[in-house]
Amino acid sequence: MTFRVLMVCTGNICRSPTSELLLARELAHVDGIEVASAGTAALVDGSIPTPALNLLAESGVDGSAHRAQQFTPELLRSSDLILAMAREHRRAIVELSPATTRRTFTIREFARVIGHLGQWDGKLTHASADDRLRSAVNVAAGHRGLVPQPSDPSELDVVDPYRRSDDTYRLSYSQLQPAVETVGDFLARAAGS
Fold first, then answer.
1. Is 3-191 assigned to CATH 3.40.50.2000?
2. Which of 7-22 are b and which e, b meaning 16 or more Cβ less than 10 Å from the residue's Cβ?
3. Are 67 and 36 in contact (CB under 8 A)?
4. How many CA atoms lie within 13 A of 107 on its CB side?
5. N or C: the chain end with fewer CB closer than 10 Å?
6. What is the pTM of this model?
7. pLDDT of res. 163
């Protein structure tokens, strides 16, 4: 089986594909994890804008092949972990597919929660990597309400850079990159890699 991670933003051309590509690179050495992205109002078949492509290229990632897709109930249901770029996307996901509530977070929220787990991997007793990954997401979901919330809720979101300055693209990227690294480390550990 495959453990599926879905990144979601609005147009699926800036934040979610950037996080998809960065996480896929982080997890390239881990078998059985698939990373995809979609948008709540996708610019279907749209490509990543030049400022975001340039930031990816600086990190050694080629985003030129990306084409935007709309999220669907089926795509949400088949995902084991859904990481939204902002609270508005998390809300749209849960409204469309309430069954995904427990496995849907903003990416910065998920990074915040897993950063407070302590020795979480000792709780994973499953033999298969898929089961360990799903169990790890459940552990994180169980701790969501125990982690102190930021004083400014917007700290759970990634800034939308679309049609904004290069500085805004850099700000958005600087919010995504550490969250992606934290998530990548967590999933690799959960898979036993």
1. no
2. bbbbbbbbbbbbbbbb
3. no
4. 33
5. N
6. 0.94
7. 92
Q: Coil, strand or helix: which one is 113?
A: helix
Radius of gyration, CA atoms only, the chain: 16
pLDDT, tens only, 53-99: 999 999 999 999 999 999 999 999 999 999 999 999 999 999 999 99
Nearest partner of 171 among 13, 15, 50, 24, judged by Cα? 15
The rounded distance, in Å, linking the Cα atoms of 69 and 167 is 26
Q: Is pLDDT of 1 > 90?
A: no
**Cα–Cα dist 82/106, whole Å:** 8
**Edge to edge, what strands does the sheet with 81-84 contain?**
33-39, 3-9, 81-84, 104-106
- Cα 192 versus chain centre, distance: 20
DSSP 159: -
Predicted confidence at residue 141, as pLDDT, reads 93
Instruction: Calculate the average pLDDT of the chain.
Output: 93
What type of residue is 42? A
How far apart are the C-alpha atoms of 76 and 8, rounded to whole Å? 10
How many residues make up the chain in this entry? 193
Q: How far is CA 90 from CA 6, 11, 39, 51, in A?
A: 12, 14, 11, 25
Question: Phi/psi at 113 (nearest 5 deg)?
Answer: -65, -50
- Tokens representing 69 are 């897709």
